[in-house]
Amino acid sequence: MKIPTLHTERLTLRGPDARDIEPMRAFYASDRSRFVGGPRTAELAWRHLGTEIGHWTLRGYGRWMVEVTETGEIVGNVGLWNPEGWPEPEIGWDLFEGAEGKGYATEAALAARAYAYDVLGWTTVISLVKPANEASARVAARMGAFLDSEFTHERWGHMQVWRHPAPADIADGGMEAYS
Amino acid sequence: MSTPLIAAETLATGRLVLRRPELSDFDAFAAYTMSERTLYIGGPKSRRLAFDKLANFAGHWLLRGYGRYTITEKATGRAIGHVGAFCHDDSLPPELAWTLWDGADEGKGYAREAAAETLRHYRDDLGWTELVAYVHEDNDGSIAIARALGGVLSAEPGREPLSLRFDFDLREKAA
What we know:
The complex is a heterodimer.
Chain A: E1 6-7, E2 11-14, H1 21-29, H2 42-59, E3 63-68, E4 74-81, E5 90-95, H3 104-119, E6 126-129, H4 134-142, E7 146-153, E8 157-163
Antiparallel strand pairs in A: 1-2, 2-3, 3-4, 4-5, 6-8, 7-8
Chain B: E1 11-12, E2 16-19, H1 26-33, H2 47-64, E3 68-73, E4 79-86, E5 95-100, H3 110-125, E6 130-136, H4 140-148, E7 152-157, E8 163-169
Antiparallel strand pairs in B: 1-2, 2-3, 3-4, 4-5, 6-8, 7-8
């Protein structure tokens, strides 16, 4: 399938591809990946990139690589994720080293949510957050999500389920996310 | 910006059609992943890991331009296994795999037929010069296929403690 490209005010969300091998290896080699299954070896990071791309093929949606539009810098990996074993489809966000504190995760995740609601027609979506991952919980809260329930994953263990507001409950209606 | 496809998306033999993996393969692939048929490759593993792996098969196509095909029976359309080349390590030649998902499909020559067609494609259409295959030392059926396809047992160790490495020199057109 052709992976759509989304644009926000500062960011471009594009399909992951072979350019992303090094950024993904670096992310999974770092402590920043500790809440999402890392650190992982270079080979496992490479395999995970393949799995992320193939999720688009199998599900018809998936995660994007996030670039700062002005500079082309790859700052994270954000999008819609629903592998076998997930309780329901979620919006996930990972920021790479040095990209935190600028609101990029929130900005990209809002675009992903708008895509889920406006293009895919979803009526609800969650985000799974490890309890110790306070930065991620803040992103969920900033997006208007609320702590809904808990979920224990066969491999990743205990996680909070944050539920996003339904499409009708998002005050400003459609996002300007994909111009 | 995905890597352009190098390999044919679909290949056909007398009895089989090889095509890229898709979601409809998942139940059969998961049943295989959770079965004892995966003992030689470190299984059985969970349905969850089966999804990640099938997604990886599909994603590999977009990273490398080639990858593993789902083997389907031409007469019925049924997905019965996977076959084809993949590469998780740039320092190694592509690796060829062939697997039937259900023991009931063994004994018909399907795995060999499928693997031979992919080898033909890589050699004749793509001009590849080498491939490797890793086979568990107790997997007699797969060892026989490796030899029948022209694989030569390597002095190099396999990746896993009990795996054998077979080298395929595709410059020899003698098949």
